[in-house]
Amino acid sequence: MKKLILTHHYTNRDIYGNVYHAVTVENIKNGKSFTVHTPSLGNVKGILHDAFGGWDKCPSVDVPAPTGSARPSSLPNETVEGFLDQCHFSDDKHHVYTGSWRKELNKIGFRLPKNKA
């Protein structure tokens, strides 16, 4: 049974070859969600794999949502508190990562074990 809808917002390639991404993570059961800017959908899927402890524990539906523009401002605004690590699921309070993937997932209805990360 699917748990998540991952809506992948992305821009057209700009004149420098860059494509910008944002992913909205939505809990299918209650409709709650958050949006994070990220280097790619794969980063978010990898983080969720680590957070839930395997692919079979975080089944998702991927929904592409191109913005039709090359401007990063065409992406939806981030709705997370602080700055999340874009490559790793971690609760460490090091570097500039002031946000927590665990906290954001808890807000939308997922309870993760404390010893994860």
Number of helices: 2
Spans with pLDDT under 50 lasting ≥5 residues? none
Number of individual domains? 1
Elements, N to C (H/E): EEEHEH
Rounded Rg:
14 Å
Q: Biggest sheet, open or closed, and with what strands and sense?
A: 4 strands, mixed
Tell me what portion of residues adopts beta-strand conformation. 15-25%
Structure in a nutshell:
With 117 residues, this protein is an alpha+beta fold. Helix content is 16%, strand content 23%. The longest helix is centred in the middle third of the chain and has 12 residues, at 41-52.
SSE blueprint:
Layout: E1 4-10, E2 21-27, E3 33-38, H1 41-52, E4 60-66, H2 101-107
Parallel strand pairs: 1-4
Antiparallel strand pairs: 1-2, 2-3
Describe this structure in words.
It contains two helices and four strands, in the order E-E-E-H-E-H. 21% of the residues are buried. Strand 2 and strand 3 form a beta hairpin. The model has no long low-confidence stretch (mean pLDDT 88). With 117 residues, the chain is of the alpha+beta class. The two termini are 24 Å apart. 16% of the residues lie in helices and 23% in strands. A four-stranded mixed beta sheet has the order 3-2-1-4. The chain has one domain. The longest helix is centred in the middle third of the chain and has 12 residues.
